[in-house]
């Protein structure tokens, strides 16, 4: 017996290897549950790439922004619209379904209808949850199993009921659908109707966006299959009736929004009941059309297989060698990429606000997070989607008047800093996105950001433009009688506006508009006007950080104000640093960290900081003393800015300092909100070994975390390759000793986007010590100013603190909490 078994085992292991080699499946390394607890706020459910339908179980967690959580909170419903990774209020989660195997004694009024009371029936164990790209599956402690999958606008749920026990009620399943959303933001006069014959439920309600202004109306259409309809009706608060089939419900002045909705009861629970629900921003009829067209026959297996196939194709451009690599790193990597393809959402054809032939993308939530690495990653992996997004941003400018800085649920979202859509457009332009993009309008849009102040700059454009133009900075306590917004963040707005202007200059240069190019290059230097060269930074215990020269707030009369450079750092738990009226002069980040945000002129910044060695020790101090926090986006580029000081080895080491220590492939494994996939893209780019300086045609080279990486461009079909010679899976040999690009010696520490479009090959020879590779002035990435003080090799390699000495803090999560309070949300 022993021998044949062994043979079979050998044979199948071999077959497995052959299979693995021929059909590498990136989906094997995607875990959608990463970030489903500990404030990751990731949407872990079923969706197509950029899909409008996003089905998942919703919990009553305080951190339910993405719908589902694995933090002990109970399921209160199953809904079909979500955002991913966001802060702010919980987003969407409208028109939740809930299922019961039966109502006690057959009395519908003994089933729990309101969301709050349903929670008692929604307990589950984390081990009874599974998620794969395109499907989500949960079994509640009640024994009800809910599986879900989606098409672009519609979700298909399959509820399986526990078989009758001897002393239990006969199964007469009741499925309800309510008129709430995750944030309980429903406004007056929502409607719902249920067809007594078919059980079809349709309805509409007005809701609030989760981090923005205004309201939006959403419609839905739900159908059932799998069991005979017994009866149906509507419920209001805790009471229901099978006599009434239509309802218009108030928000109510107390205990709002008043629970209300419809339900259908079935004669049998022996077979699973399929529930198909679709939404539309246009009408309930349109929602029904989506559902009928996309899921005509309620075939769960077919719909989920189609979703899986779409995901596999979408993820296939990036292939890494799995040889010797810990699978948890592979899961980190591919799951990170996956999370960048959830939001923004493609609502083309679903925009009731204007009619246009252009695509419409929503859930730019927010561009302050997305511009840095998420949208640049998609420019490599899915340029067609980014082209659609850019067209949509420009079309939004055409119809709304300005590019958004944040946009969700067809509403204007709050601007966090600069007009960073300017960076998104520049990034797309320098990387050659052209197809169908009207760049004249695109240029007009970014120029409007720079030239015309909106009356209300809460949600678009820039504030303080008169001062910006006359003084060359945004003053603290500005006098602005033309436009109105939260008068904080004068330092971070100045730095971001300066970079935004550089981005405008680049588009101008490419379009041959030399006067505009000169003009915006000039104002892109405005960041220097807030640099106070004798400013020191003292810890609150009196210890001097030893660094001099920091950005500082400045008044209208040009005298300096003061903000402690450590305020709003990761270690400052006292300051208010978000969009509150009491916020500081830097947004969600310290002067220390914003002190590196001059992405276009690192050379001048390095000179101001005293040369490359001083720049490097300041950057080390930023990371090693816990001032920065990798869980918030301004930190991303600082990991790699050593490249500009001629120390690319230190960028590589810093990337390994953060990954995997701060990113583990577990539900609680993200260091903060995923922010629409921003964190995911940071992980993906860092591990891939090319990090973008967004808005510029520059990727900073570090060794990939894998022996090789192949990236096939979806449009040119050329494959870009990076290969590590002397690859060391223990990551001690992470320093580039020499490199070739397409077979020729290459010493520059960066490449441009043609690496991807033309499918070049970079071969990196690694060693355990820092080398001279990429360290000379001619090797450094482009910078507006000239590199100075690089004659001698910069200081010797210092040891950095061990990652495990670090503590994570939730400083910014707390600030989002108080933001909600201050905005009255
Ligand atoms: C949940 O999963 C555990 C195993 O992890 C299993 O024993 C149990 O039966 C499941 N519970 C339900 C309600 O399916
Ligand atoms: C809701 O309906 C009531 C009754 O028809 C009406 O008085 C009220 O103005 C409506 N509210 C809104 C916000 O439309
Ligand atoms: C109930 O709603 C349905 C569907 O919207 C509609 O056709 C019907 O006329 C409504 N009935 C009443 C009594 O309002
Ligand atoms: C990348 O492409 C090369 C050349 O086709 C191939 O030899 C290598 O196995 C590929 N690597 C991966 C990780 O797919
Ligand atoms: C893989 O990484 C995980 C998480 O860091 C670690 O717990 C595990 O021991 C590693 N496995 C191997 C084989 O090194
Ligand atoms: C967006 O949706 C429209 C309509 O459903 C579709 O035609 C288009 O291909 C989608 N765009 C992308 C990038 O997925
Ligand atoms: C003051 O705090 C800083 C930062 O935590 C620390 O590095 C330094 O050693 C402290 N100084 C004293 C005297 O405790
Ligand atoms: C400039 O304005 C600030 C803030 O109002 C004030 O404190 C300061 O004294 C003024 N400086 C001069 C020189 O007027
Ligand atoms: C931040 O500023 C406040 C005053 O607003 C000060 O009390 C606090 O010590 C500062 N925090 C740090 C870390 O410097
Ligand atoms: C690498 O650096 C270490 C410590 O500075 C040194 O002992 C060692 O000889 C170096 N290795 C090589 C190959 O240069």
From TrEMBL:
Record's keyword terms, sorted: Hydrolase, Signal
Gene3D superfamilies (alphabetical): 2.70.98.10, alpha-1,2-mannosidase, alpha-1,2-mannosidases domains, GH92 mannosidase domain
GO annotations of cellular component type: cytosol; nucleus
GO biological process: carbohydrate metabolic process; glycoprotein catabolic process
Domain Glycosyl hydrolase family: 287-767
Superkingdom assignment: Eukaryota
Domain (Glycosyl hydrolase family 92 N-terminal): residue spans on this chain: 29-280
GO molecular function: carbohydrate binding; peptide-N4-(N-acetyl-beta-glucosaminyl)asparagine amidase activity
Keyword Nucleotide-binding: no
Protein's name in the database: Glycoside hydrolase family 92 protein
Source organism: Thermothelomyces thermophilus (strain ATCC 42464 / BCRC 31852 / DSM 1799) (Sporotrichum thermophile)
């Amino acid at each position: 017996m022993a021998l044949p078994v062994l043979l079979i085992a050998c044979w199948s292991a071999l077959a497995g290897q052959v299979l693995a080699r021929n059909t590498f499946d990136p989906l094997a390394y995607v875990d959608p549950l990463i970030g489903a607890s500990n404030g990751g706020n990731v949407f872990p459910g079923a969706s197509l790439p950029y899909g409008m339908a996003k089905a998942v179980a919703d919990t009553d967690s305080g951190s339910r922004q993405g719908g589902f959580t694995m933090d002990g909170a109970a399921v209160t419903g199953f809904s079909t619209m979500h955002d991913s990774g966001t802060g702010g209020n919980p987003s969407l989660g409208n028109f939740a379904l809930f299922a019961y195997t039966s109502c006690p004694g057959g009395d519908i009024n003994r089933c729990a209808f309101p969301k709050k009371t349903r929670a008692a029936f929604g307990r589950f164990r984390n081990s009874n949850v599974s998620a794969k790209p395109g499907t989500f599956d949960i079994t509640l402690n009640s024994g009800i199993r809910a599986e879900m999958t989606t098409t672009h606008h519609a979700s298909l749920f399959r509820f399986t009921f526990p078989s009758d026990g001897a002393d239990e009620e006969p199964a007469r399943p009741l499925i309800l659908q309510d008129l709430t959303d995750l944030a309980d933001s429903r406004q007056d006069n929502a409607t719902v109707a249920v067809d007594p014959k078919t059980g079809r439920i349709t309805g509409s309600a007005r809701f609030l966006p989760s981090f923005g202004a205004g309201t939006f109306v959403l419609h839905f259409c739900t159908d059932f299959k799998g069991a005979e309809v017994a009866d149906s009706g509507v419920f209001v608060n805790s009471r229901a009736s099978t006599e009434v089939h239509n309802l218009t419900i108030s928000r109510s002045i107390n205990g709002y929004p008043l629970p209300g909705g419809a339900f259908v009861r079935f004669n049998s629970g022996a077979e699973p009941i399929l529930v198909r629900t679709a939404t539309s921003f246009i009408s309930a009829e349109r929602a029904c059309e989506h559902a009928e067209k996309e899921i005509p026959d309620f075939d769960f297996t077919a719909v989920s297989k189609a979703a899986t196939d779409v995901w596999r194709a979408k993820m296939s451009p990036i292939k890494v060698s799995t040889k010797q690599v810990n699978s948890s790193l592979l899961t980190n990597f591919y799951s990170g990429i996956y999370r960048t393809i959830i939001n923004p959402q493609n609502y083309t054809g679903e925009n009731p606000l204007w009619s246009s032939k252009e695509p419409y993308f929503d859930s730019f939530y927010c561009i302050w997070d997305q511009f840095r690495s998420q949208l640049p990653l998609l420019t490599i992996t899915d340029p067609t989607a980014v082209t659609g997004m850019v067209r949509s941003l420009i079309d939004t400018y055409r119809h709304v008047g300005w590019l958004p800085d944040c946009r969700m649920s067809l509403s204007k979202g709050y601007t966090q800093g600069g007009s960073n859509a300017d960076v998104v457009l520049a990034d797309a332009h320098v990387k050659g996105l052209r197809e169908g993009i009207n760049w004249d309008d695109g240029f007009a849009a970014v120029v409007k950001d720079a030239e015309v102040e909106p009356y209300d700059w809460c949600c678009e454009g820039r504030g303080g433009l008169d001062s910006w133009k006359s003084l060359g900075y945004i003053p603290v306590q500005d006098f602005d009688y033309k436009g109105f917004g939260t008068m904080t963040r004068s330092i971070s707005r100045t730095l971001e506006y300066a970079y935004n202007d550089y981005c405008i200059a680049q588009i101008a240069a490419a379009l041959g508009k030399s006067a505009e190019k000169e003009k915006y290059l000039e104002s892109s230097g405005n960041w220097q006007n807030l640099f106070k060269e004798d400013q020191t930074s003292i810890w609150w215990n009196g210890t001097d950080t030893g660094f001099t020269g920091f950005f500082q707030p400045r008044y209208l009369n040009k005298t300096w104000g003061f903000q402690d450079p450590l305020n709003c750092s990761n270690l400052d738990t006292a300051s208010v640093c978000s969009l509150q009226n009491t916020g500081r002069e830097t947004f969600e980040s310290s002067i220390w960290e914003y002190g590196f945000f001059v992405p276009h002129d690192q050379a001048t910044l390095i000179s101001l900081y005293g040369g490359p060695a001083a720049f490097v020790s300041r950057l080390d101090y930023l990371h090693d003393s816990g001032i920065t926090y990798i869980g918030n986006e301004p930190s991303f580029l600082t990991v790699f800015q050593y490249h500009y000081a001629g120390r690319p080895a230190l960028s590589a080491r810093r990337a390994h300092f953060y990954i995997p220590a701060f990113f583990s492939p577990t539900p609680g494994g993200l260091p903060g909100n995923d922010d629409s996939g921003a964190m995911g893209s940071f992980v993906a780019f860092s591990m891939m070994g090319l990090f973008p300086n967004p808005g510029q045609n520059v990727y900073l080279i570090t060794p990939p975390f894998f022996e090789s990486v192949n990236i096939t461009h979806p449009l040119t079909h050329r494959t870009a390759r990076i290969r590590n010679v002397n690859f060391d899976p223990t990551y001690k040999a992470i320093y580039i000793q020499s490199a070739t690009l397409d077979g020729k010696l290459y010493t520059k520490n960066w490449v441009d986007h043609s690496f991807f479009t033309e499918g070049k090959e970079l071969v990196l020879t690694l060693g355990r010590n820092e080398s001279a590779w990429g360290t000379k002035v001619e090797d450094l990435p482009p910078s507006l100013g000239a590199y100075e003080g690089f004659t001698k090799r910069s200081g010797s390699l210092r040891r950095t603190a061990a990652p495990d000495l670090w503590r994570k803090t939730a400083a910014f999560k707390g600030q989002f909490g108080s933001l909600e309070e201050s905005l009255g949300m």
